[in-house]
């Protein structure tokens, strides 16, 4: 029996990284689109400035029509922060869905980049179907500013589909999503130009040098204390540093028999759980510690919990609930 009252969890610590850079999947574990996975607002603002021409028109490299896979979904959602998009869910088993995809393809190409179309093969991307909570095929969804909006379900005549696209463009106008795609079949949403220290940190991460990345992000924050992106990246680097060369199963096994007063054991276990995409377990663990200890030890657990909130994503419902529990635990 665990002295913490929880069974030992099994950790799957496979994560998506670029070098050592932690990236989040836009599909969360509850089967919904996780907007907290998208790049921060400042990142998007820099990208908008970078891609706006002398006439004030934002031109984004990329095809007018593309297949959307699980691997490409995050980039597609980020594109919707700049260009209005539509997704049609199709299947080879549904002739109507294939016809609708062809109709939308023709209509979107006629709009000359003012709207983009993503085609999801529902049979080969069930994760996306689940994330968008698709109930029938075909289904068409608009994506504006990272937010999926149901458009229509079932087939549609070309004139009706055209009216639906017009409504998307009108909504995009009101939301200020006014970018255009240039039609380049090989084009991709570009990375924004970064400050020198951030470039240095990214390069260090790509070669796996966590110490150099830590130093570079620290410099970036010192130069710009309001750089929230670098603060988050620094927290991610520190998380990697804490668990590097640690065996996740050994860490969790040790914590399962450690008393809640063994703060170090539970801090490390919470790190492993977050990396294993088990934030609920990590937060519950640290909240138990906070309720049990006091003084400096309690403050250490509180600060680590807040740090992990930022890594998981402040808009994640799990974080919102844990914040409420933290406030209650501190009273």
TrEMBL record:
InterPro entries: Thioredoxin-like_sf (IPR036249), TPR-like_helical_dom_sf (IPR011990)
Gene3D superfamilies given in the database record: Glutaredoxin, Tetratricopeptide repeat domain
Annotated segments matching region Disordered: 1-24
The organism's place on the tree of life at top rank: Bacteria
One Pfam family, short name: TPR_20
Positions with biased composition (Low complexity): 1-16
Protein name listed in UniProt: Tetratricopeptide repeat protein
